[in-house]
Task: structure prediction
Amino acid sequence: MTILTQARPRPLSLSDRLILWYDRFKTPLFYLILILWAIVCLAPLYFTLVFSLKPVANAYDPPLFWPIPFTLDNFRDVIGALPLFPRWLLNSLIVSLTVTILRVLFCAMGGYAFARMDFPLKGVLFNAMLVSMMIPGQVTLIPAFLVVGPGIIRGGLKIGDITLPTGFGLIDNLGGVILPGIVTAFGIFMMTQFYKSLPRELEEAAMMDGLGRWGIFFRIVLPLSQTQLLTLALLTFQGEWNAFMWPLVILRTPENFTLPLGLNWFRGEYYTLISKVLAGSLFNTLPILILFFLFQRYFVQSIAGTGLKEG
Amino acid sequence: MSTSSTPLASALALRQKARRRREALTAYTFLLPYLFIFLVFTVFSIGYAFYLSFTRYNLLSPPQWWGLEGYRRVLCIESWFPRPENAPKPVCDDLFIRKALPNTFKYTAIVVPTQTLISLILAFAMDQKIRFRRLFRTIFYLPSVTSSVVISLIFVWLFSPLGVINQIFHLKINWLNDPRYAFYTIMMVNIFTTSGTLMLIFLAGLQDIPTALYEAAAIDGANKLQIFRYITIPMLRPVIFFVVTVGVIGCFQVFDQIYVMTAGGPLDSTTTIAYLIYKWAFRDTTVKMGQASALAFILALIIFVVTMLQRRVIEGSGTVGQ
Result:
């Protein structure tokens, strides 16, 4: 019986046929998928570039795919003729750089304290920090706005003759954009995890040599954590450079806008000059693209690594 | 504890105590910037937002206590049940119940599965022996590093009536001004932006699966379909959970794209919860900060419940994970 059934070729099951089909076509199929999505990713930026290289008057004329007639006027106007644009660029740069430098330093300090030192309430504080990461930003948006700006109590808190301000009064001020971002729970958590994985020997040797905590931190720990700090710095810079909601709440006059706010405002004011808006958009994208190409490894690491650890 | 008899021991204990105190002091100095921000912008802010959610507050006069009225107006519970004839119409701000809540769920229900599937397929393709992998990875990640405002401005223009999309496909659709299409256009933008990042996370997850597992399964005679079903998917489950969670939380908080592309319109068809909070707190002619705070807490609760449910679904189903 068994010999008989073996002699006849078994009909291919559906899953076998599926696998055969998959083996034959998988390579071209995967390339097709990858190339299609690559086109989807590149097309918007490409069309933006083409469009911003055409004169405003010929904006919607064919051809669609090439900048004919060609002009650099839009870029020239964005830099030269629109006085607000360099201002926005500068504002964005001030905010992003300040936040990045302070956040990297303060997160490294906090992370080092959590990883290496013993102090009362350590466990409570660390857990509170983890919980705070799960609270959506919308909850604290309004109080944060009140604290940074007009204050919790209008006119300040009166105790006897003294009036204490209840807010920082930083509405329409870049300082107000910077302040809440100078240190984040996520950054501290990331640095804590990193410092826990760092061997202690070097620090112990330094302690034997009589170096204090601050000396150890600035001379030994910080140089050892360059890679991690750079990753945090890149993530922070990217986030702040592109930030929209918080600056939107804080900043009021166009002179004080950051670039994303400015571009959006400009679009509303001069709807017909869309070519210039798009040229400006490319300016906003360029610094991040350069950073990304220079430090691609760190970007990828930060997404793939810390992202997973966070979950 | 350290009340020892010998003077040497007590001196040592004292010294240790002093050292511990000094270390605690140093630690708190290291943590000072964080503690300041944490106390002001997390602890105090959450507490004050909670208080505000029980008040009526328009910024001009101090917050006025009105108990659960803010929550009642947001949820508009009376409108859930049939109203008896000639009963007075309840005072409600039913934009949440009528538009923002269903919109947000619809948005999440479409965007999360789509972007998860696209990024999983992309990651799977990238995990094969592919040439130019670095190039592909760079290109896929481009939309994620570009600012959401710039992406939104570009798409406003691409999807404008005379825009590139209509020209290429010979369409005459007013994508962002037509309530039938506006929300789907925004969904597309979001899927476009996030898929690259999620692909990177999936790719890292795929590459973390030990090759020994695949080899063992192949020796046991498992075919490719079985290997995918019984090794890849279970091993990837924690990553899937992470990607879906991040996606859901992101969707529930979507703001930039909506603000720039439609400002909640046309006919409130793109108003989501996060946008509504902003609208009530900062945009409406008479701001409603109390009511907006109430809605913020409702949003936090929704996110919490959905995340828990989803953890149940993903961890509870099928074979064992890691």
About this structure: The CA atoms of residues 51 and 59 of chain A lie 7 Å apart. The radius of gyration of chain A is 28 Å.
